[in-house]
Amino acid sequence: MTSAPKRFAGLAAAVLALGVLAACSSSSTSPSGSSSAKPVSGGTLRIVAASGPAHLDTVPSYYTTDYQLTHAYTRQLLNYPTVPYSSTSDAGWAKTTTPAADVATEVPTTANGGITNGGKTYTFHIKPGVDWNTTPPRQVTSQDFLREYKAFFNPVSPVGNPTYYESTIAGLSAYAAAETAYFANAKTHPPTAANITNFQNTHSISGIATPNSSTIQFTLTAQASDFLYMLAMPFTSARPVEYDSYVPNSLQLDQHTISDGPYQITSYVPGKSLTMARNPAWKQSTDSLRHDYVSQVVDTFGITSAQTQLSDMQAGTEDVISDTPVNPASIPSLEASHASNFHIWPWSSTFPYVVFNLRSPDANGAASKLLVRQAVNYGLDKVAVVKSIGGPAVATIINTVIPPGNVGYQNTNMYPNNNDLGNTAMCKSDLAKAGYPHGLTMLYMYPNDSSNTRIFTAIQASLATCGITLSGKAEPGSSFFTDLGNAPENNKSGAWDMGQPGWIPDWFGNNGRTIVQALFQGPNCVVNTVNYGCYDNPAVNSLIKQAEGATSLSAAGTAWQQADSTIMKDADIVPIMSQNFPCYSSARVRGVASDGTTYPTAIFAPNIGNPDITAIWLAS
Q: How far apart are the C-alpha atoms of 211 and 195, rounded to whole Å?
């Protein structure tokens, strides 16, 4: 990632809104399920939302609500099963965050012959019977998947995150450069549907081949142990040939979507509503990851009040939410009631964390000094910070770069801090060694919403006890990430010394690429960087390359953990917490796991960031 993407922004808004929670206790187990309860077919699932999806076209889709809806009307070579879990370390979490076969007949491995060429070639075969809802229905082909990749770099609405794919698929960077150059002059080559389609149909991507209609083959620039996760993102959905007639992400395309999933869009009124009905061309026998229990899904937009949304669900007029968190003020009473249709799901993030501007000249370059950064790691009272946003029910304290539930995570603490209450003595000692025996003042930038303000206040009070005075620089969220990531300007006095961003990975498990590479690979000291402090350690850069080219998960995990350890030795950031996801659904909602077990609440899908609406049936 080179900037704060739409998916990050959407998830961040949801997580930060949890900040007004009062302290409450978190469930330590997954909801109780029943294997005897049989799903009922029919009914209308009603989703309530503040604003609805940002995109219906899967190429630019990079927002939680987009993910929730596209999961119902699009399919990928790989996707994720819906499995309840109780923590990010149990078997359920591992299963629900591991890609499984979707349109592909199987997940390719070296053993089954799907991964060859020393780990650089991946071959997928497409299931027969996966059809588009055309008239008559038409088989989804390998060319439909290739079409999506060719649409990645269209000049109107390109893919949400190209970095993952350009750095792995052979020839994709060259293809992107050629398309960018072709459309650089809008007068010579206006970005019409016909021109975009003509370019894509007359240019090829050397690393993607379609030997026949049921086979697609990817050749990588180097081994990439996390490549399968990239193929489970909505960006990589099959794309029907009919979309060639429309400008990508246009209203015309939105009004003519084609489906290969269990539901098809029957009505879309931007800003008001979206309706889906069962797709008659979809066959359950070809899809082990989704269902079509309900007859219809109606998503209503424009309900911005979290209290109204909750009241509607409690009254039974709405069933699940989409882009707004459960009303935070109501969570303590929901917890106290032990409502079976409310559950706080563990999640995995580094949200928020403290980052240092290594190029700031202020306070005699304090942020660039290792002992100062280590002093902050020792001195920060993380218990107080977590308490400021609701306590352990909504967040778990972490002391590593990689949060729980991901390859390379080890529960270690390089800076013993009095059981996370802060080690004032060590903080003062390191400050004195750094040349600040009487303390110092540092400029601290943070988003000015109420949740982040509470977090800043707790951090400010915590570090004051060891002599670090934080001078707050509050900014609107709309400018905070822009200014934090404006690396070329951040070496000037008065920019910032410490900042308060947050990060939620694009996938879980083997996801060092979405955490370590994104946040810490150097030099990457450019505009809109998410390596906010311009951290650059050759040892870490080497470990990133080693991890991404690893031939096994264990080897990748070892390299990611070593990178984590090196970054923490350098004290480039102060990890604070990993936040959870409170989830409420109406009393009639029943969630169904991949094994058929029914639960009295919607099941949260970590990779969607919302409940899986294709795993819901409605009780009378």
A: 26
CA 440 to chain centre: 37
Same topology between domain 31-303+582-618 and domain 353-579: no
Instruction: Return the closest-CA partner of residue 79 out of 261, 239, 229, 220.
Output: 229
Strand 353-356 to 100-101 pairing: unpaired
Mean pLDDT, the chain, rounded, equals 92
Mean pLDDT for each consecutive 10-residue tract of the chain (620 residues)? 40 43 45 85 96 93 92 98 94 96 98 97 98 98 98 94 92 97 94 98 98 98 94 97 98 98 97 97 98 98 92 97 83 91 94 97 98 98 92 91 95 97 98 98 93 94 98 90 92 97 92 94 89 97 93 92 98 96 95 94 95 95
What is the pLDDT, as a whole number, of residue 570?
98
Q: Per-residue DSSP letters for 249-309?
A: T-HHHHTT----SSEEEEEEETTTEEEEEE-TT--GGG-SS----SSEEEEE-----HHHH
Ramachandran area for residue 364 (φ above 0: left; ψ -120 to 50: alpha; else beta): left
Report pLDDT for 5: 43
- 353-579 CATH fold: Dipeptide-binding Protein; domain 3 (3.10.105)
For 137, residues 6+ apart whose C-beta sits below 8 A from its C-beta are: 131, 281
CATH classification for the domain delimited by 31-303+582-618, as one of 3.30.1490.100, 3.40.190.10, 3.40.50.450, 3.40.50.2300 = 3.40.190.10
- As beta bridge partners, residue 130 has none
Q: Are 449 and 443 in contact (CB under 8 A)?
A: no
Alpha-carbon radius of gyration of the chain: 24
Comparing CA positions, the residue from 409, 333, 416, 372 lying closest to residue 561 is 409
Residue with token string 């038409």: 138
Short-list 463, 433, 429, CA closest to 354: 463
pLDDT tens profile 274-330: 999 999 999 999 999 999 999 999 999 999 898 999 999 999 999 999 888 788 788
The amino acid at 227: F
Q: How many helices (H) and strands (E) does the chain have?
A: 21, 27
- Distance from C-alpha of 581 to C-alpha of 70, rounded to nearest angstrom: 21
Spatial contact of 377 and 415, defined as CB atoms under 8 Å apart: yes
- In the sheet that 320-321 helps form, which strands lie side by side, from edge to edge? 263-269, 273-278, 296-300, 44-48, 320-321
Residue 286 in tokens: 């070809």
Tens digits of residue pLDDT in 16-53: 444 333 323 344 577 888 877 899 999 999 999 988 89
Residue 14: CB partners within 8 Å, gap ≥ 6?
Answer: 64, 323, 324, 325, 581, 609
Peptide bond into 404 cis (omega under 30): no
DSSP string, 459-503: HHHHHHTTTEEEEEEEE-HHHHHHHHTBGGGTTSTTS-SEE---B
Q: How far apart are CA 185 and CA 197, in angstroms?
A: 17
CA end-to-end span of the chain? 45
Judge whether 530 and 398 are in contact, CB under 8 Å: no
Structural domain spans, the chain: 31-303+582-618, 353-579
